[in-house]
Amino acid sequence: MTSKNPTENDAISTGRLQIKKFDPHILIQRRSKNSAPVICVIGKRNTGKSEVIKNLLYYNRKIPSGIIISPTEAGNSFYSEFCPDLFIHHQFDPDILNKVLKRQKRKIKETGKHPHNDFFVVLDDCMYDCKNIGKDKNIREIFCNGRHFQITLIMSVQYIMDLPISLRSNVDYVFCMRENNTHNVERLYNSYFGIFPSKQSFSQAFNIITDNFGSIVLDNLSRSNKIEECVFWHRSPYPSANFRIGGVTFWKTHEQLYDRTRNDDDDDVRKLPPACELIL
């Protein structure tokens, strides 16, 4: 028997396996141990990737500051419901991430590793130019060393192949949404879910778990070889809870500096003024 609509504490039965619900609080625990995670959400359009990101940010809403880069934000204003517009960018720009890295290195050097130095970076569907963006040295540094600089990275891609091989091994948590292309499911198995004894067993679990906007989750930091201790299910609540991410200074800076009369189609408006870099 399979559990199609599990309640919050249910496990999903996928044949012989009982897949438990993913606990997002583990991300907070990682940050508290100075090991900010790299998270990748994989799924085609309209499979619920942004809702997963929103749910993960809800659990990490006490992170004092951060930035979001989302090319679709100009059309749907999804992230501005809970994150200051001043820190939401509509186009990928290597200079933004370069400033983040410099800021984090400076803050940690000045005050040491402390929760008030935690920072989030969201890159939502930014791999439209995956060959060049995937090679960006700032992205590579955040993937490989972001945990040392207290940067929690959440990145979404439509296909696993959009993520360069050199970066895939540095992902700590993988959330995979529904996929009806068997070749893409096989690529997910080959890239991340080889812990399953066969492609068939993975495909069975994948189809059951990702039904109804669910996602199958891999904890790449688990030291166990047991599937049930590495693989989980997740489904973001809808409608989601109302919340705001970031600290008081984060929002005050937005209120003081953000000009709502600007033309949002002009990417220059997303370049931060010098005063704003103090908390970026």
Q: Can you walk me through this structure?
A:
With 280 residues, this protein is α/β, with parallel strands linked by helices. The protein has one domain (12-258, 272-276): Rossmann fold (3-Layer(aba) Sandwich), CATH 3.40.50. Helices cover 32% and strands 16% of the residues. The chain contains 10 helices and 10 strands. The protein has helices spanning 25-32, 49-59, 73-76, 94-111, 130-133, 137-145, 165-168, 182-191, 199-209, 248-257; strands at residues 12-14, 17-19, 38-42, 65-69, 88-89, 119-124, 151-157, 173-176, 215-219, 231-234. It has an 8-stranded mixed sheet with strand order 5-4-6-7-3-8-9-10. A two-stranded antiparallel ribbon has the order 1-2. α4 (94-111) packs parallel to α6 (137-145). The longest helix has 18 residues, at 94-111. The N and C termini lie far apart (50 Å). Residues 268-276 have low confidence and may be disordered. Pfam families: Pox_A32.
Number of strands: 10
Strand content: 15-25%
Strand order within the widest beta sheet:
5-4-6-7-3-8-9-10
By CATH reckoning, the class would read Alpha Beta
End-to-end Cα distance:
50 Å
State the CATH topology. Rossmann fold
Per the principal axes of the C-alpha atoms, what is the gross shape? globular
User: What is the mean pLDDT?
Assistant: 89
